[in-house]
């Protein structure tokens, strides 16, 4: 069963990282609701686990080193270069529901935060939730006790926002149930 498999992955290694890659794979990717997923710690917003696991493909879908992007100036007149730190932006969205100047970028893709609920209830738990959209896809972001979970979906891969959200919420409830 899912819970036995997850327990095996979690107990097989007391370290963060690789074992969580498989847990994310199972909860978010294998059932087809998300094409990628990641986990970051609340401390810094930096991803430490990603799926899909094969060939470390998940990392390419969710992560980029800090990079410069052309951002529309505040007065709306043209653009200006801005250094983007994706981990800091994710942390801001996960904890406040709002993106910092420059917006939410994940894997050099810009997402627009269109929904937020800083006290979303699901099952026995209360989370911080945000939803970022891009053309034909998006990312559900949930902050649990001390983790940030992201599930990415793509309409072009036959996925939709509702099923992806259900999967990410179920995974977040599981994490809360084990103290994460």
Structure overview:
- Helix 1 runs antiparallel to helix 2.
- With 180 residues, the chain is of the alpha+beta class.
- It has a seven-stranded antiparallel beta sheet with strand order 2-1-9-8-7-6-5, sandwiched between helices.
- The N terminus is likely disordered.
- The radius of gyration is 16 Å and the shape is globular.
Features:
180 residues, alpha+beta, seven-stranded antiparallel β-sheet, two-stranded antiparallel ribbon, 5 helices, 9 strands, 32% helix
Can I get a quick summary?
This protein has helices at residues 2-12, 18-29, 57-62, 86-96, 161-177; strands at residues 36-41, 47-51, 67-72, 79-84, 104-106, 109-122, 125-134, 137-143, 147-154. It is of the alpha+beta class and 180 residues long.
| Strand and helix order | HHEEHEEHEEEEEH
Q: How far apart are the first and last residues' alpha carbons, in Å?
A: 21 Å
Q: Which regions have little confidence, pLDDT < 50, spanning 5+ residues?
A: 1-15
Q: Rg to the nearest angstrom?
A: 16 Å
- By DSSP, the count of extended strands is 9
- Count every helix, treating DSSP H or I runs of 4 or more residues as helices: 5
Shape estimate: globular
Q: Roughly what is the average pLDDT, rounded to an integer? A: 91
Secondary-structure content class: alpha+beta
The main sheet comes to:
7 strands, antiparallel
Helix content: 25-40%
Strand order of the largest sheet: 2-1-9-8-7-6-5
Percent of residues in β-strands? 35-45%
């Amino acid at each position: 069963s899912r819970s036995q498999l997850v327990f095996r992955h979690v107990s097989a290694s007391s370290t963060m990282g690789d074992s969580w890659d498989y847990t994310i794979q199972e909860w978010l990717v294998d059932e087809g609701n998300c094409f990628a997923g990641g986990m970051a710690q609340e401390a810094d917003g930096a991803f430490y686990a990603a799926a899909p696991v094969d060939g470390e493909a998940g990392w390419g879908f969710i992560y980029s080193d800090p990079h410069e992007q052309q951002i529309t100036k505040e007065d709306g007149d043209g653009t200006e270069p801005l250094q983007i730190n994706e981990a800091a932006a994710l942390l801001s969205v996960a904890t406040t529901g709002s993106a910092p100047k420059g917006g939410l970028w994940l894997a050099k893709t810009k997402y627009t935060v269109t929904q937020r609920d800083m006290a979303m209830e699901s099952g026995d738990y209360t989370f911080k939730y945000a939803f970022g959209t891009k053309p034909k896809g998006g990312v559900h972001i949930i902050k649990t006790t001390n983790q940030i979970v992201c599930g990415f979906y793509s309409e072009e891969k036959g996925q939709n926002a509702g099923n992806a959200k259900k999967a990410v919420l179920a995974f977040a409830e599981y994490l809360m149930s084990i103290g994460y």
